[in-house]
Design a protein that fits this description.
- The structure is a homohexamer of 334-residue chains.
- Chain A is of the alpha/beta class.
- Chain A has a single domain, classed as Ribokinase (UDP-N-acetylmuramoyl-L-alanine:D-glutamate ligase, 3-Layer(aba) Sandwich), CATH 3.40.1190.
- Chain A has helices at 35-46, 60-70, 121-124, 142-157, 179-187, 197-204, 212-225, 274-288, 291-305, 317-324, and strands at 3-7, 11-15, 27-33, 50-53, 55-57, 80-82, 87-92, 101-105, 128-134, 161-165, 192-194, 231-241, 244-252, 257-259, 263-265.
- The longest helix of chain A has 16 residues, at 142-157.
- Chains in contact: A-B, A-C, A-D, A-E, A-F, B-C, B-D, B-E, B-F, C-D, C-E, C-F, D-E, D-F, E-F.
C-alpha cells in the first residue's frame, strides 16, 4: 500500500579515476545509475519501500545490474529483460572551470526496446502509493513514452501521488514526438512538480524570470493549467565552478512561499545524481513531514549527495537529519 | 606501394581485473581491439606499413581510440567518424575449466552504420599491396558487407594480395544475407586462405575430417573451387583447458604439405587476438620469407601473443625470430 | 517448504593483492565468507532458495555484509545484529610450495556472542527442507554450539534433511567442550555425512586408512553408529603444490560405492571455499539428481570454484553442467 | 638519557579509497596508527629519539606492524607480543558536510590484554627523559590503566617530563573505572597539559567557557589543583566543514598567555592524527625552543599533518620551520 | 611552412598516487613531460602542427616515450636515440601549505649527450614557421646549449618567429657557462619574450619591481636591449597555497599595455606544466588572434591546465574558447 | 662478532603490473633490490644479523630506500649518501616463451661514485664474521672495484669467511679493467665459491662441460688455483619456459660430491633474486648446519623465493625447514 514506484532506464556509468580523461586512462570505475533509479535507490537508503521498473539486458552485464540493485534491498521483481545490451554512459569528470563531459551509448539499449505490453502495470502498482517520473524517459523512444503514459494513467486512476521532474534535455526527443506536448500530457497525471523556471516556461510556453516573485507567478499559472498539480518545488544551484556549488530550494504549495538556507558545497566529490537526491528527499519528506521541512530535508539530502562517489545518495535519514540540526562541521562519527 | 590494408570494426574491450566477474568488480581495464585491427597493429609492431580503415564514433571515446591507434604508428588517415557510439565488448576471463565469456554491444555501433560511399577506396588503397579481411565484417550488416566487397573488388583489380580469414561466427549474420553465399563471393577475390577444416567445410559444403590427409584433400578442392586462392594455412589449437593451450600449424601451398612443431603455452596470459597474431605473422612472413618459414613465424607469433595482455601482439620481429631460433626458455633480456 | 538453511559465522576476509604478503602491501581486497555462508551463497547461485542465519555487527561493516549477501538474493531476514565487531580473517595467498597463511580475529566477534534465545528457530525454519552445518560452528563458543544444537533438533523433528560437514579444526574448541562429544551429538541429528577418513576416524575413534575398501568399511560403521546417516560423500584432494590440485570424490550410500573422475586444476585462482562448493553442489544435486550424478555435480562445482576469486562459487547450474558434459577446454562463451 | 617514551595501542586502520563507503568498495588501504604512536612517529620524523611501548599480536599482522614502525627508526625493543589479534579500526572518509565515520574492533585486542607485569618499566624508561600519555589508554581496560599508572609513577620518580593529552572519549571507559577519577590520578604525575576547556572542565568539574579570559582562569585553577602541571597548551580547531578547517593554539605557562595565528587548511587531505601532530610538535619544541615558539611549531606541525595521507605526520623539522618562516604558498621544492 | 618547432628534453615523471610520499607508497603513476615538450603537445591538442626535436634512450623506455608522443599526433621524425637512459624526475605532490617536491635523475640522460652534429637542423626546420625554446635546455650541458644555439641561428636566418621562455633555474647551469651570458645570446635570436620581472631583471641586470609601471619600463628596456624582441607577455601567479592559485597575465607589445582578468583556480588538480600551457596558448593564439586575445587565450589555457592530471594540457581550442566566453561554471557537456 | 656483511648497489626497480609492457601501462610497482642487498635481506629474514654497506642518493628517494631497508631490521649504519641519484632498473615481466626484459639507469648513480675513502672498513667490519660479494660490484666502476677490494683484504686479514658469487655480466666491465683479472684477484680473498661451470671456466680459462664429473674436476682445479677457496656450490636451473623452472644444486667441498633433489616451480611468481636467495640460504646454512644440509636449505630457499613478489626472499627459517621436511603441497597455515 505504501510502495514508491520509479520507472526508467538503468545505465552503466564508465569513468576514469579522478580527473583523468579516457585518452589518459586504461582503467575505469563503473557504477549503475539513471535518474529515476537514483531517486529510487536514494529513497531506499532513507528506509522507504521502493520498486524500480525497467528493462535490462539478458547477459552478465544485466545480471550485474540486478545484483547491484539488490544490494540496496530494492524491489526488482517487476524488471523485464531484453536481448539488447544495457545502455552505457561514459563520463570524464572535470574540475574548477573544466566541465565534466558525458557521451551516451543508449539509443538501442535494452530499455529503448520497452513497449507498454512488456510491463504488467496492474500488478506492478498493486502496492504503490507514489509514482515518480522524469522528462528523460518520454524523450527516449515512442515505446518508453507510451509505457510511462500507461503507468501514469493507472497511477492517477488509483489516486497515487505522482511526482514529476520534467527536465528537458535537448539531446533527446529524436523519435518524432514534440517534447512540450508529451510533457504536458504527462503533467496532467501528476500532483507534485519538481522543477524551476526553465521547466515551467517550457511546458507553459512562458518566459518568466528567476526572481521569487516570478517563481510564484509561474507556479500559480502552472497549477491553473495543470489542476492536478498541488505543489511546486524548485532546487536552485549556484555554480562557482565545477568543484564548488551552492544549493538552496524554494516552493509554492498553493498557499505559501518558502525558501531554504544556502548549503555551501566547497569540495564536490561527485555531482551526478544530486538533483535526483533532491527529488528523493522531497518524496520521502512529503510522506513524513510538512512541506517546508520536506523541502529542507530535500535540500540537505541534495547537498550531502555531492559528497558520495557514484550516482546514488547513500545518506540515511539520520545523516540528513543531522545536517538539518545544524551539524555541518563534519566532525567524526565514532 | 607496399602498404598493408586492414578493414574492420574497432571495439572497446571492457574487462574486470584478473579472473573477476563483473558481479564482483567495480573497476575495469579497457583496450581497443577488433580482429582485423589486431592483425594490422601486430604487423605494425613487426615493422610493417599498415593502414586501418574503419568507422568510429565522433565523441571522446572515438578520440581515445584514434589516439590508441596512433601509439602504434598506424596510418589512420582513412578512418571515418559517425554520430553513433563505438562498439563495446565485455569480457570475463576464465581459467582452467571455466571458459571466458563475452557480451557484445555492437549492433548499432559507429561501424555498423558504414556504407560503401563512406570509404574512398581508390584513395585508401593507393599505396596498398595487401588487403586482409575476416568473416566478422561481412557478418555485421549489409553496409559492412557491401563496403568490404567494394574494397576487395578494387584490391583484386589492382592485383593486390588478399588474405582471407573466413571465420564463421554464429552470433552474427542476423541481417538477412546467407553467410556461405557472402563468404564464397568474397573468397573469389582472395589469394591466401587462413583457416582450417571447419572453415573449408563451411564454404565448400563438405564434411572433411581433421587428419592431415583430409586437410590436403580439402585444400585442393578449395583451390579448385576458388582459383584465385594460392595457399592454405591452418592453425591448430589444442586446449588442455582455458589456461593451457598448444599451438601448431600446417599448410598446403598447392605443391607441398608442411606442419610446424607444437608450441606449448603452459600459462596463458591473454588468449584474445592470438588467431589474429597468426594471421599477422603470416602476412608479414609471406612478404619476407618462404612459405614454410612464414608459417613457422606465424605460429611463433601466435604463441607469443598468449603472453601479452590485451588484444594486440606486441612482439617485434626480433622477438619472434628468437623463438624460432629455439630460445623458448624465457631467460632475461638485459 | 523447500528452503535450504545455513547457519554460521560471516567473516570479513582481508588479503593483499596477488601473492603479496601484508609486510609488502598497503592495499587489500576484501570479501565476506564463512564456510556455511559459502555453501549457502553457492546454492543460491545454482538457483536454490537459501536462508542464512547468523549474527553480525551493528555498524557500517555489518551493513556492508548484509548488502553483500543481498547481491546474491539470499534470504537475510533471520539475521540478528550485535554490538560486537564482525569477525575478520587475514589471508596471505601462497603459490607453488609456499602455503597460504591465515590469521583470525574472531574470538570476540558478533557471532561469538550468539545464544540460543537470539534465534527464533521455529520461525526461521518455517519453510526449511534442508539444514547444513559444519564442525566450525560448534567449535567456536558454548553459545554457538548450543544455538546450533537447538536448530538441529528442530530440523530433525520436522523431518528435514541435515547435511553435516564435521571438519575438525584444531585451532578451535577452546571453550571447554570436547570436540568428539559435540560432533557425535550433532551427527545424531544428521542424514548426510560430507567428510572423509579423517572425519570418520575422529568421530568413531577408529584408525581407518585411505583405500576405497577402508572407506567403505568406515562408512558402514559410521552408519551403524549414527543410524540417521544415510549417505557418506568424500572429496579427495591431491595437492601437487599450492597452485595445482586434483579433485575427485567417492561415496557410499548404504548400497553402492562409486567414485568420480579426476578434475585437474592446473592453475588455481583461489582455493578458499572449494570444499564448501563441493558441499553446495551435493546439497543442490541431491535435490535434483540421483546420488552419483549429485557427487559428480559436486566435484565439478568444487573444481570450478578454484577458478573464481573470493570465497564464493559463482558457477551456475548451466556452467557446472557444461563441465559434466565434458566441456573442460575453456573455449569462449560468446 | 634523552629518549621520549610513548605508550599506547597500535591499531590497524582500514579504509576504502577516497570518499568511498565500505558498501561501495572491494579494496582498502591500510595504515597503522594509534594516538600515542602517532605522537611518537611524528617526533621520530622530526629527528627525536623515541621508544614506543605497546603489546601487539603474535601473527603476521603483528610482524607487519613491527616492520611498519621500523621504517621510522623507532625503538621497538620494549614491545611485547600477545596471542590476541591486533586492534583494528574501520574508517569511512567524509567530505564537506558529511562527517567521517569510524568503527572499532579493539575491545579484545592484543593491547587490551596488557597487564603491569608484562612491561619492565625500569628497563623501558632507562634512557627516558619524557613520557607522553593520552586519555585513550586508561579508558580501555583495567590492565591498560594500571600499566600506564605504573609507568607514570616511575617517570615521576625519575623526574621525567610528562605530557598529558587527557582526551575524554565517551565510547571508552566501559570497564568500571570512573574516567574523571582515573584522569585526575594520572594528571598528578604530569607536567605539561595538552588540552582545552572541555578537558579542563572534565577533570576540574567546572563549566568554563571558551574565551581567552576563561581559558586563563581555568588554567590557573588546573595548575593549583595539579601542582605538578607547569604549562597548559590548547589547540583550537574551527571546522568550516569536513574538508576545510582552521587551526590556532593558545597557552598559559603560569606567567603569560599567548596565542598563534590561524592556519587555514583549505583542502584537507587526511584529518586523522592532526591532534597528535600538535602534541608531537609541542614535545619536540619544548626540548629545543621556548614556550611560544614551541606552540607555534606545534601549530604548524598540526596544520601540515592535514596534508599527509595516513595517521602519521611526515613533516621534518625543516618543513615545519619553513611554514613558520612564512612559506605557506606551497611552491615547489626542486 | 607552418610547423611549430619545440626542442628539449623528454623526462619520465614518476609519482605516487594522490598526496602520498614515496616512503608511503609502493605504486607509482608515470607520465612523460618536459617544459618544451609540454608546450608542443599542448599546441598539438589545440590543433597545431608541431614537431618536437629531442634525444631519447634506445631501450623500451624510449620506445614507450615515442609511443606516448605519437598519441598526440606530434611529428616525431626528427627525434634521435642514444644508448644513455631517459631522464627521470620523481615528484611528491603537496597540498595546502605543503609544497610539492621534485628530485631529478637527468644529468647523464640521453638528452644530456646531445651535440650539434646529432640534429640535422636544415631538414628539421624545413617546414618550420615558429621555434620555441626555454631556459632549461641551455642550462643542462654545453652540448644542449650549442645544439639549441645552432637551431635558433637557423630559425633567425629563415625569419621564423622565435618565442623565448628564459626561466632561470638555480639547480642547473653546472657545466661552466654563465647563465646570463647564454640567455642573452639566445634572446638575440628571439622575437617573443614570455617572462616576467624576474626573468627581465636576470638578463638585464636590473632590479625592477612588480608594478605594472615597472613592468612597462622593464619591457621597454628589454626591447631596446634585444631589438629582435617585439612583445613581452607575463603570467602572474598568486599562490594562496599549494592547492589554490589565481592566474592573470599582462603584456607590453611596444605600443600598449593590457592585462587580463583573474582566473581563480580553487581546487588545483595538477600544477605541473601550467606555465607551459600559457606559452602554448600564446604561440597558438598569436598565429590566429590579435595580441590581447592571444594573452587572454593563453591565460585561460593556463588556468584550464590546472584541471588535467599529468604534464600536458588536454584542452582543445573549443574548450579554451568556452572559458573565454565566460562559461566557467563547469556545467556538464553532454 | 657474528655479523654478516654485504656490500653493493641498491637499485630501485620499476615495473608495470602483471605481464604488461611499459608501452601498455601508466602505473608501476616499485621495489628496492640489488644482488648483494637481496642476499643480506634474505639472511635478515632468516634471523641473521646483517649489515649492508652501500652509497645511496641524498634525496627523498634515498630516504625511501633507507626506510625500506629498516623494515627488515638490517644494520644501515654504514651507508653513505651522495648527491647523485639512486640507480634504477626497469623491468618488463615475461611469461612462457617471452623473456623478461630489463633496462638499467645506473651508470652515474650514487653507488657508481663510491671510492675507497668513503667507507670506513675498519669500523664497518668491526663485528663482521662473514663477507659476501658478487661479480656485479667490481664490474661497475673503478671506484666500486677498489672499494670492494679494500674491504675484502681487511676481511681476509680478520679471518672472516668470504663468499663469492662471481657472476660475469657482459653488460658491465665498461670502465677499463679486465673482468677475469679482477675476479681472480678478488677470489684470492674468498673462501666459499658460489657458482657453476660457466663461472669456473671464466676465471680458470677452461672449457669444462656440465656433467657432474667435469664439475668435480673444475672444482678441484679451482681450489688448487685459489687455495683460500674451501668449497664450491653450484645451483642448476632448468627453464622449461619463463613461467616454469626446476632448481637443484650440487657441491664439492674438497672431500665429497653431493647433489640435491629437483624442486619443481610450476608457477613462478617472481624470478628476480632467486639466485640471491640461494646464496643467502647457503651463508645462513653454513653457519648453522653441515655442508649438505646447507646446500639443501639453500635450494629450498631459492625455490621458495620464486613465490614472493619483489627482489627479496621473505621466507623464514621455519618456512624453509618445512619445505625440507617434505611439506611442499602448499596446504594452509592457520
Amino acid at each position: 500500500m505504501s510502495q514508491i514506484i520509479t520507472f526508467g532506464e538503468v545505465l552503466m556509468r564508465l569513468s576514469p579515476f579522478g580527473n583523468k580523461k579516457f585518452i589518459q586512462a586504461n582503467t575505469l570505475e563503473f557504477y549503475f545509475g539513471g535518474t529515476e533509479l537514483n531517486v529510487g535507490l536514494s529513497i531506499a537508503n532513507f528506509g522507504g519501500n521502493v520498486k524500480h521498473i525497467t528493462c535490462i539486458s539478458d547477459d552478465f552485464i544485466g545480471d550485474t545490474a540486478i545484483s547491484y540493485l539488490n544490494k540496496f534491498d530494492l524491489d526488482t521483481t517487476a524488471i523485464v529483460r531484453s536481448g539488447r545490451p544495457l545502455g552505457v554512459y561514459f563520463l570524464e569528470v572535470g574540475a574548477v572551470m573544466r566541465p565534466s563531459s558525458i557521451s551516451y551509448n543508449r539509443s538501442h539499449s535494452a530499455f529503448s526496446s520497452i513497449q507498454p505490453e512488456m510491463v504488467d502495470w496492474e500488478s506492478a502498482l498493486a502496492d504503490g502509493s507514489w509514482f515518480h517520473w522524469t522528462g528523460i524517459t518520454p524523450g527516449l523512444t515512442q515505446g518508453s513514452f507510451d509505457t510511462l503514459k500507461e503507468g501514469l494513467k493507472l497511477a492517477k486512476k488509483k489516486g497515487m501521488q505522482v511526482s514529476a521532474d520534467p527536465t528537458y534535455r535537448s539531446g533527446l526527443w529524436k523519435y518524432g514526438v514534440n517534447a512540450k506536448d508529451a510533457l504536458v500530457e504527462l503533467l496532467h497525471c501528476s500532483t507534485i512538480f519538481i522543477g524551476g523556471i526553465n521547466e515551467m516556461n517550457e511546458v507553459l510556453g512562458t518566459e518568466y524570470g528567476y526572481t521569487n516573485e516570478e517563481f510564484i507567478e509561474a507556479s500559480k499559472l502552472l497549477m491553473e493549467t495543470f489542476p492536478s498539480i498541488e505543489k511546486v518545488f524548485d532546487k536552485i544551484r549556484t555554480s562557482i565552478n565545477a568543484s564548488w556549488h551552492k544549493i538552496r530550494a524554494r516552493m509554492w504549495n498553493g498557499e505559501e512561499f518558502r525558501e531554504t538556507q544556502d548549503f555551501d558545497i566547497t569540495h564536490i566529490v561527485d555531482r551526478i545524481g544530486t538533483g535526483d537526491a533532491f527529488a528523493a528527499g522531497l518524496i520521502y519528506g512529503l510522506q513524513h513531514f510538512d512541506d517546508y521541512k520536506s523541502m529542507d530535508y530535500a535540500s540537505a539530502a541534495c547537498a550531502l549527495k555531492h559528497t558520495y562517489e557514484g550516482d546514488v545518495n547513500y545518506a540515511t535519514i539520520d545523516e540528513v537529519t543531522r545536517i538539518l540540526d545544524g551539524n555541518v562541521s563534519g566532525r567524526f562519527n565514532r
